[in-house]
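This section describes the prediction task in plain terms. A model, or a person checking by hand, is given the sequence of a single protein chain and must write out its three-dimensional structure as a string of C-alpha cells. No templates, partner chains or ligands are provided. The sample shown here is typical of the held-out split.
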Amino acid sequence: MDTLSNRDDTMEQKTERRKQMVFKNVILEKEEAVKWAEYFDEKYGDHGGATGDYRTWGGMTVNKDKSMFIRKKWVNHEDPNEIELYYFWHGYLFSVDVRQVWGDDDLEAWEFSRLMSYPRFNYSSGIHLPEELIKDKEQILQDFKTAMVTYGRKGIGISGYEKLDPPLPHIQIRVGDKVY
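The expected answer:
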C-alpha cells in the first residue's frame, strides 16, 4: 500500500500525484453504490454499521482514482454544525467528527473533534490512527483538507446541488492548535 510519505519523489511523480488528488462531487449510479457497500460489508461486516447499505454511498466527494473520498454520515439535528463524516484514505475507512465554524459571510473552517478508524472504535476526542498510519498523520490531514475544499459547505446531496455549494479554497481544517 502506498503511504504517500516519500519526500524524494521526482517532479513527474509529484505531477501525477496532483492529478490523482483532483476531487469532485459525484452522484453514484446504484450499481457503483452497491459495489462500495459490498466492499465495506465484506471488509467490516457488522462492525461497519451502515457501510454495507448501498444508500450510504449515493453521493460523495471523491478523487480521480477513487483512493480517497469524503461522505456525510450523520448530522446532529439539535446542532446542525456538528457533522460526522466517512473519510476513506487509501484502503482505510475513518469516522471523522467535525464542527462547522462560520464567519460573518461564509464557512471558515472545519474543526476536528475526533478521527477514528474502522473497525477499531475509540469514541474519545482526538486523532486515533492504526499504528501503521501514525507516520502518515500529516498527509492524512492534508489530503482531508484537499477533499474538504471541494466538499464545500454541505457535500453532495442531489444532482445539481454542487452549483449551490461551490468549492471553498479558503477553508481551514483545525486540529487542536494546528491549522491546515
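For orientation: Residues 1-5 have pLDDT under 50 and may be disordered.
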